[in-house]
């Protein structure tokens, strides 16, 4: 059983998407990031970077004590290797899946995240910052669109952890200033994943967890922390 510490954000959806697609049992513990749950000592023991998602594998392969894992990319790779699912076994397919997993972690996620911040959440609208991150998001969509030309999924003919990582960051495309019609190969891939039953089950968690609109109190919790926040 996997214990998933989760909130319905793109990074949270990565893990529910994997677990539903792989058919692995799990239970969810909500981490209300607007209320500051990510700074609680019990969560920091699992995720020292005070970010969700995180998991605890209660039944690790070595039969030892439960294993906590933080960082969504590390979680996806850990789960894929443990279950033998959603990661190609051939050297070339595995290489491709890992390339695009790290591409999402190092590129699409951070750039789209800054896009979200400056366009939606920042109280002061800074045109240069908005343009900078919207343009970079547009470039990254173009990179993925080109890669998907002639491919069913990111790493080939089967869904992999690369798709689990990238898809949730494309879901809020309208909020990022992107129109999927401008990226036909990406749109075809996106629509195919959206239609999968596992995707629909994964995203159903967003309806089960009650969220409130962001206010100044939540904004103060989410943004502007320093090293003092995690002491």
TrEMBL record:
Residues 90-214 form the GST C-terminal domain. The keyword Oxidoreductase applies. GO terms for molecular function: oxidoreductase activity. Pfam families: GST_C, GST_N. Residues 1-87 form the GST N-terminal domain. Keywords: Oxidoreductase. This is GST-like protein. It comes from Chiayiivirga flava. The lineage of its organism: Bacteria, Pseudomonadati, Pseudomonadota, Gammaproteobacteria, Lysobacterales.
